[in-house]
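QA checklist item 7 of 12: single-chain prediction sanity check.
[x] sequence parsed
[x] length recorded as 169
[x] structure emitted
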Amino acid sequence: MGRRRRHHSLLAGTLLLVAVTTPLGCQVTWREPEVQQPDPVVIFPAELARTCAQLRVTVRLLGSALDKDTLEADACLLESAHIELTDTGDPIDHLDEVAYVGNPNPFSSARYKITATVRPTTQGNVRVHLATRIEGFDGDYRVLRSRGLIERTVVERLAELLGVKPIEE
């Protein structure tokens, strides 16, 4: 009887070892962590004309000219020309850093465009509304979801140029 128990114990141990070391038939799928999107509306304690002028400088610092530049008495609208993503230099130049593209990245090239609308608030500040359109090219341009890096970079550079931080109103 002792041999039989030892044999069953040895068999059970072997089966347990095989079960633990054999990969299961399931596949683990990598999911990119969600990034908290920045608020598209930012309030600055600044004047309209100065904010619009510094936004022009910010767009140039990102490597683009303006496609649209409309200044009215109570608002301005700025839209950059397309800014090519190159995968060199700052993370803001890398498609994988600025947009959700999947794994592996299927795009041969990419670009983005920034649109900013600036309006005064009743408290004497300015409200800057930012929108970014990121496009990846895989034979046709496809709109991609932003990770918020471009928008945060624009807000940070604008704050530096204005010499003030965004505020809650």
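[x] summary fact logged: The chain has a mean pLDDT of 83.
[ ] second reviewer sign-off
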